[in-house]
Specification:
Layout (H helix, E strand, L loop, with lengths): L3 H30 L5 H21 L2 H10 L4 H19 L3 E3 L14 H24 L6 H17 L6 H34 L4 H28 L8 H28 L5 H6 L2 H36 L5 E3 L2 H29 L5 H21 L5 H33 L5 H13 L2 H13 L10 H11 L6 H33 L2
Antiparallel strand pairs: 1-2
Helix pairs in contact: 1-2, 1-12, 2-5, 2-11, 2-12, 3-4, 3-12, 3-13, 4-11, 4-12, 5-6, 5-11, 5-18, 6-18, 7-8, 7-13, 7-14, 8-9, 8-11, 8-13, 11-12, 11-13, 13-14, 14-17
Length: 516
């Protein structure tokens, strides 16, 4: 346990490093602004863009590596190295050379009076989103960076052009994603966990089942992530429709299956027939999942930092307001480096929150969360639904946690039923039956309970319905931390309005400073 002095020194070092990075951006951006009457605005926007990128790294990247760290597949240090490398790679390689200046088309820039007003609005939006992310990180709440910048653009847009500037249909879809993203992610993650439990973990010969099922799961992961990367991570380099992307993913999945099947069989032959052995088979796939999620995240979400900055740069250079702006290399570099710096300095806090504080994760559960992240994005893309990668990942973690609670509660009920049905038998008979029950798979357990209940009439049971309910409640464990549910849900709900209110305030402040 670190003492107070050590924590203070650590916090001071991180703050100092962050300030040094922002000063470096100021020095770097100064030559770009020479000779331009709005040069000071460009420098300020570059610094704010770097600050926003750091907060994306501190808050949002945890979704990609948190489950792997919590499960023990990656150490914190290795997770930061892998995520930093692939986040930067995704941003620089696949971030694109053109970015939408108005995130998600939520406002109509034609209703903004002039280029100067547009520049002030984009600066206010970027600053509000960055500060909101900073606050969320400080309180340990993983929130959507996309929703943060959407809220910033919304508030600044309304302040600059009135309520008519907003595309309310788009805003309604974004609001719907607050529910759609976590629910879909949670259901998919829980479904995969149930499949693994049913077809591997609760089989008598777990290793034999793993040899058959794990290669299929990893191949399916290969399909999901390949399709996800083509549709989202590489879309600015190589644009394909869903069927073509799915076809590419299928080819990759077949290749992966042929490679991993003998490797899984060889590994399983040297293992013991228990859950821990099965759990280890998912370690390497988890590392790949963390890397690929980070690459796709860097390619997509760097736009949250550099989009408004690119828009400001273009407006200053041309004097025009455009819906798409080119991204100079120096702008993209600020976004990529900022994400890496923020991750290294402040990322561990949210990584721990997602990886271990919400619920206990092992490699099987973390694998299910990673699968949910890729598949949910694919489904949502085809349905035209706006979803948040943050909400999906956190929803996936909640999903596996609540499934564990549900299965454990049902198990407690079953044990109570067994004991009351065998109440007239000797303790040895009851314990022998329970041992066989624990060793059986899901299907066998159902048969055993049905046969046991058939042996005794309901009227002969020693516990009535209320007593059974009381016993079940007494033995029930909460495997998901409720306080975090409420905190995270509250942060999600207020992200857009909070960022919007802050952006409107900052717009009027900046305009008041800049007007003669």
């Amino acid at each position: 346990m670190m003492n107070t002095d050590s924590l203070s020194i650590s916090n001071l070092f991180r703050l100092s490093a962050a300030i040094v990075f922002l000063i470096a951006i100021y020095i770097f951006a100064t030559p770009m602004a020479l000779g331009n009457q709005n040069g000071i605005l460009l420098i300020a926007a570059a610094v704010i863009g770097g600050y926003m990128a750091m907060n994306i790294g501190a808050n949002d990247v945890a979704n990609n590596v948190g489950p792997a760290v919590g499960a023990g597949a990656l150490t914190m240090f290795s997770a930061i190295l892998i995520a930093g490398f692939f986040e930067a790679g995704g941003a620089l390689i696949a971030g694109g050379d053109v970015v939408s200046t108005i995130k998600k088309g939520i406002i109509n820039p034609d209703l903004i009076q002039d280029g100067q007003t547009f520049i002030w609005a984009m600066m206010a939006a970027l600053l509000a989103a960055a500060i909101w992310l900073n606050v969320a990180t400080l309180v340990g709440a993983p929130v959507s960076t996309t929703h943060s910048i959407v809220g910033g653009v919304l508030g600044a847009g309304v302040a600059a052009g009135g309520w008519a500037i907003v595309n309310w249909a788009t805003m309604a879809k974004i609001a719907a994603s607050w529910v759609i993203s976590p629910v879909l992610g949670g259901v998919i993650a829980a479904t995969f966990l149930y499949i693994i439990k049913n077809y591997i973990v609760h089989k008598r010969d777990k290793l034999l089942a793993a040899k058959k099922v794990v290669p299929i799961l990893i191949a399916f992961m290969g399909w999901a992530f390949s399709t996800y990367l083509v549709l989202k991570g590489l879309k600015k380099l190589w644009k394909l429709d869903f069927l073509s992307a799915a076809g590419v993913g299928l080819i990759i999945a077949v290749i992966i299956f042929l490679i991993v099947k003998p490797l899984i069989a060889k590994s399983a032959d040297s293992m013991q027939n228990n859950r821990e052995s099965v759990n280890k088979l998912f370690a390497i796939p988890l590392v790949f999942a963390a890397a690929l999620l980070s690459f796709a995240h860097g390619a997509n979400d760097v736009a949250n930092a550099v989009g408004p900055l690119a828009a400001i740069n273009d407006a200053i250079s041309t004097g025009d307001i455009v819906k798409k702006a080119p991204i100079p290399l120096w702008v993209m570099a600020i976004g990529a480096l900022g994400i890496v710096v923020g991750l290294a300095l402040y990322g561990p806090k949210l990584i721990r929150t997602i990886g271990s504080e919400i619920t206990e994760l092992d490699m099987i559960r973390a694998f299910c969360v990673a699968m949910a992240a890729a598949i949910t994005v694919i489904i949502a893309s085809q349905l035209g639904l706006p979803v948040s990668s943050t909400h999906i990942a956190v929803g996936g973690v909640f999903g596996v946690g609540f499934l564990r609670e549900f299965l454990e509660t049902n198990h407690v009920k079953a044990v109570i039923d067994i004991r009351q049905h065998l109440s007239d038998d000797t303790p040895e008979v009851a314990e022998e039956f329970l041992e066989k029950y624990e060793a059986a798979d899901f299907a066998e357990r159902g048969v055993m309970l049905a046969e046991l209940k058939a042996r005794k009439r309901a009227g002969d049971l020693i516990f009535d319905k209320s007593e059974r309910k009381r016993l079940t409640k007494a033995h029930k464990r909460e495997l998901v931390k409720r306080s975090l549910i409420y905190k995270i849900a509250a942060a999600w709900v207020i992200t857009v309005p909070a960022a919007a209110a802050m952006a409107a305030f900052y717009f009027f402040t900046i305009r008041g400073i800049m007007l003669p």
